[in-house]
Amino acid sequence: MKHKEGHILPTVRIQKIELENFKSVAHGELVFSCGRKIVPQDTESDILGIYGQNGSGKTAVIESIAILKRAMSGNPVPARYSECISPGVEYAGLSFTFDLQYPVNNPFSRTITYSFKIGAVPNERADESDEFKSISSLFPNKVKIFDETISAAGLFNGEIQKKQDILTTSGKNYPIGPVRKIPYYVGNEKDTVIVDLEVNKRSASKDSRSFIFADETLDLFFEHCDYSEYYQILIELKNYAGLYLYAVDTRTSGMGAVLSVPLNIRQGVLGLNLMGTSGMPQEVFEELEFCVAGINKVLPALVTDLKLELVHDEVVIEGKKGQEVRLFSRRKNVRIPLRDESAGIIKLISILSLITAAYNDRSITVAIDELDAGIYEHLLGEILYGLETYGKGQFIFTSHNLRPLEVLKKENLIFTTSNPENRYIRLKGVGRTNNLRSLYLKEILGNDQDEQIYDAAKRQRMIAAFMKAGVGLAEDK
Questions:
Q1: What is the mean pLDDT of the chain?
Q2: Any residues with CB less than 8 A from the CB of 418 and at least 6 apart, and which?
Q3: In Å, what is the CA distance from 331 to each residue of 169, 304, 325?
Q4: Does residue 254 carry a pLDDT above 50?
Q5: pTM > 0.90: yes or no
Q6: CA separation for the pair 294, 292 (Å, rounded)
Q7: Which of 251, 276, 248 has its CA nearest to residue 262?
Q8: Which of 46, 88, 227, 312 is geometrically suited to a Cys-Cys bond with 34, CB 3.0 to 4.6 A?
Q9: Is the separation of the CB atoms in 252 and 112 below 8 Å?
Q10: Where are the beta strands (DSSP E) in 103-180?
Q11: 343-360 helix and 282-302 helix, angle to the nearest 10 degrees
Q12: Percentage of the chain with pLDDT > 90?
């Protein structure tokens, strides 16, 4: 991937997410509070907590962001995400709208939407380039990304442009469109590069990758266009996805496994073995050391005297210098294997580098599923209060613990509904003096919202099911 030397990258924020036929979400829209206005540089974080009953679309949001990161980075989307397509439909639709803020002498912003569809196609074999190949080969289907569209609005070439499509992959006569925009990507050599683009398109489809954000596609654009502002948008989004967008979901993070702990470094998620050693190249180890140093600046403030320690030995990996690493926790002079710590401590360590980034970096977007798992609820509330009040980045989370409802502003919370056609809402009728936690619990039983946020009939069905199951057990005896 190539870019113009000296180009100043914008701050990117997700404004809006739209999901269609994705898991339990027939249709759902989430609008972020900072996406409703221009946020001055360095002044405000963007927090969004998602609450609701089990199976109502919370995890779907985090998994959609995980797919987005893989797609816009130009990397394969793991086969396991083929199971996110709702049963009985051919594909799921995902759409993400971004606010791009440019820190120049006369600041301006652009609104960019990237939408695409994912389908499930037979998984003949795990692709050699897929880092999840050992897992992907277990799934009967893999992901196919198609009908990609990028639309844009804002200041382009010195003039305000209304929202319009600037790049699509669904054209009938050419690999990209719209026709009038093709010169912005390939100059006047449309017919010269058509074969190369078709090859890139088939290769990306085969590998479960985005055609637009594939390295070979962007390099082809760079070679044949005069570095247009539309091409610039593609580079900015890919840079954001690769370096500043993080999604910790339960499908690929390893968070639910007791045998490994994921730590997030610049090169991606590094899964470290809790039961033994983890081998890595020297440059990855140096990134890990930097990550652990940051964790150890924060961890003792959260858990008294606790620090993470790396024990390492130099080894040779594929003819080059590398390190074998083991993880320990240390309290004063006592060191124990990290695997012997509680699940909550391991979870906290695994996400601390991301939380720290959200505190300090306005460019970061972090999305974490089940943030509350194993974390003391008062500590959870304190972390989120600090992020909302002093943070700079964008932070998205799901939780079952209701403590955050007592510390976060109402505009920073979204609730799922029992209606799959309208999955996400904000509670109405919330005054300044309302305790949102109490109001939410009240709404569960006596709903006054436009959509039902909990199926109250479930209580009677649940009781009846338990009693019926008990009768069956008694008869078996």
A1: 84
A2: 53, 56, 451, 452, 453, 454, 455
A3: 55, 8, 19
A4: no
A5: no
A6: 5
A7: 248
A8: 46
A9: no
A10: 108-122, 141-156, 159-168
A11: 100
A12: 43
